[in-house]
Amino acid sequence: MCVVFDDDRRIYIHSRILTEYHLKEGTNVPESAVEEMVEANDRRRARERALYLLDVRDYSFMEMYEKLIKNYSEEISLGVCKDLAGSRLIDDRRYAQTRARELFEVKRVGVWKAKQELKRRGIPDSIIEDVIEEYAGEEDTFSRLEELVEKKYERYLTDDKGVKKVKNALLRQGYSYSEINAVLDLYDLDF
User: Fold this and answer.
1) Mean pLDDT of the chain
2) Cβ proximity of 54 and 89 under 8 Å
3) pTM of the entire structure?
C-alpha cells in the first residue's frame, strides 16, 4: 500500500503492517511511528527474501547474513538470521553435514579442501571438526583418492610430466603428498 504524507512524500508499506498500526485514510501519524513502520516493513521484506532463498537451497548463518546485508541494515539482517536460526530454518550443523557429504562423496575432495570450503562458508571450527571426522579416516581417504585417480587421472600416468600434473591436481583437491604418493605407488611408475 502507498502511504502519502501531507508534503506529498510517499512510502510503500505492506498492508499487514498498516493493519498492525491501525492506519486508515486521514490518520495523523507521528514521525517516530513512520520510522517504526518502515523498519517493520523492511524486517518483513528481509524475512520474505530469506525464506525465498531457503526455498531454493540451504544456507549457513553467515551466507544468509551476507545475502541480506546487501539490501537491509545490519540490525535487520542479523535479527532475521537469528530468528531463522532459532526456528531451525538455518542450521549450520545440518548445512555442514550436507555440504561435507557433497564435497567428499560427489566432488571427492580431500580433508584440507573440505575444511577450507566449510570455513569459507562461515561454519564454526568446532562444527567443521565434528562433521569432517566422519570422512577423515585413513582408509576412507585412501579409497576415495584411489577411485578419483582411477576414474579421472589414470590416463595421465604415462610419463613423468603427467605424474607431476596429477600430483598437482590432487594437491589442489586437498590431498596431502603422503596420501597422493601412497595411491600412486599402486601404479608401478618407473620413469
Assistant:
1) 88
2) yes
3) 0.76
